[in-house]
Amino acid sequence: MAEIFGIPAAALYGQLLLGFINGAFYATLSLGLAVIFGLLNIINFTHGAQYMMGAFVGWMLLTYLGIGYWPALILAPIIVGVVGMVIERLLISRLYKLDHLYGLLLTFGLALIIEGLFRNGYGVSGMSYAIPAELSGGVNLGFMFLPLYRGWVVLASLVVCLGTWFMIEKTRLGAYLRAATENPTLVQAFGINVPLLVTLTYGFGVALAGFAGVLAAPIYAVNPMMGSNLIIVVFAVVVIGGMGSILGAVVTGFALGLIEGLTKVFYPEAAATVIFIIMAIVLLVKPAGLFGREA
Amino acid sequence: MTSVAPSTEPLLAVRDLKAWYGESHVLHGITIDVRPGEVVTLLGRNGAGKTTTLKSIMGVIDKRRGSVRFNGNELIGLSSRHIARQGIAWCPEERGIFSSLDVRENLLLPPVVAPGGFTMEQIFDLFPNLKERLHSQGTKLSGGEQQMLAIGRILRTGARLLLLDEPTEGLAPVIVQQIGHMIQKLKTMGFTIILVEQNFHAAATVADRHYIVEQGRVVDEIANAELEANMDKLHRYLGV
What ipTM was estimated for this complex? Predict the structure, then answer.
């Protein structure tokens, strides 16, 4: 059997794939956080709960209404996004003129409430969600076996991340968003409805989390706590990439997933901490993050 | 000597406009009239309330009282985006060029609020420099080019009343001259302009009338034709 640095090649590729999949979730989630932080200046601690809601809405659509995976991939993010927009209008919008801390406390509290409600209703053991028939099985790539669904997760995340980047950097709507991030007063004085832009942006960022949740449902068990396990790592990714940087969130997400995967192969003891070690080093050397602009 | 007397209905009628920044009361009752096609300046020392007057007309200051009527419509209760949609455009003192947008995106950012705005070609005729810098980052332009961009982008919108806050501040004399010519040209095209200026010599070449602002009030009004005769008074007001 082939070996690389004394590690069986198949094990290495397997961990790299796993790292790439984790990276896909890190990238999609930190992208949503970055979009929200950029315009709203809110550190959205509800993000993990909204990712969990995406998975749950997907599961509910299937279980109660018989709506399958593909429609759920569109519907669940919309539903989670709309719930997010209601939360933004009713609660978060009252905090924009206050210190960051209030937004952090509110969104953290909301996460606890949402997770508590789901735990109350569905317990903590988790529900399974079957892989759609089209994507079950896998292909032998010669050097490794690739489960089709996992390949799909990476592909779908990449497409969504690139699409989001394109929308923000290259379109008219994205120009409004970037301008409003810099100087909302002036953008409003040009006649643009900035509060609506803010609500839609929050809804979009949250919908990205919901989308990641649906993607995750067939891989991880649908579980009320699935978001809180992930969100701490995602925040580390955002800090490393640079708060509010779109490209930074995507690149850092995938890169850290891979680094985490490699660490599992070469030094498994550090796999759970490597991201936080990198975060500490980045904060020491480049406090604004790898892609962040110095304030 | 009667040139100050209104000949037509004012396009903009500001009455007893008061404004606050938080608890601090900045405007104590500004009253001005601007007729269609006029160029009117607000002159005064630093901190007199000239910039705040423009911001209050534009609605970017939350706490304001009194009356601002434009085309007969009361604006005092409206938010800035609704005021912009009535056909008023503001070019702030700090210019407000967006660094995350290139020149083209900066130009296209303000939505068109009325027909009859400049086409991109007309903007480039007025400011040829911008055409060559279309894909540069907005804040990479020189100070003069940034000012041209800041004015150019509001000409696209079709707004007929322009609020220009110190457009010549910090610019080289040759650029100041260029901006003076531009304002002259806009005037001949029928734009109505309120100009805040420190440099009243530059303002005198283009303006019809001057309002003197002191401590949040309008304390005097001088027709441009009477500027020479009132030079002593003006110097006293401005402390120059």
Answer: 0.90
